[in-house]
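Below is one such record:
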Amino acid sequence: MATTIPAPPTRPRTLVVASAFGTGCVIMYFGCLFALYFSIRADAMAWGSQWYPEGAIQLVPGGMNMATMAMSAITIGWAVHAVLNDDRIHAILAMALTAVLGVAMINQTVFYFKDMGLPIDASEAATLLFTIVGSHMVMVAVGVLWLGLLLLRALGGQDTSRHRDLVSAAALYWYAAVAVYSVIWIGIYIAK
């Protein structure tokens, strides 16, 4: 009688579930900010007052950031796919590229804030703009740090398909960051 070696037990997906709960909390935070922003903006527009000074909000920087975030959504998906297939080289490349795109998005936003020349306390609109976009920059920075830690782990040779939950959890968070920025892009930069 031949004995068979049992398959290794599947790891519980507690990290992905915990990341989903944490990401849900972040999405609720942004939902509250968006509700406040759109409510106050609707009231201001109903009374006929100007929300932002003429020419303060430009479309090009917000559009470039949206393109950057869209590309990063593709690269984080590539990272998950590479980890599932035990392709360490492509996983490292994809995570590094996603982190670089996140840093580029933060850099572009900081440049745009300086170029805008709108003080944070100029109006209620400016305060909400800086709060929402600044909070999103923090969200992206946390994602970049998370990817940096995953890169260190991958460079140490520990990222295999058996440990895919680490990259899947980071990807879930990153997709939420892209979704939040899409609301910022449409609701703040385009709709003004």
Q: What stands out?
A: The chain has a mean pLDDT of 89. Residues 58-190 form a domain with the Four Helix Bundle (Hemerythrin (Met), subunit A) fold (CATH 1.20.120.80). The first helix runs from residue 14 to 46.
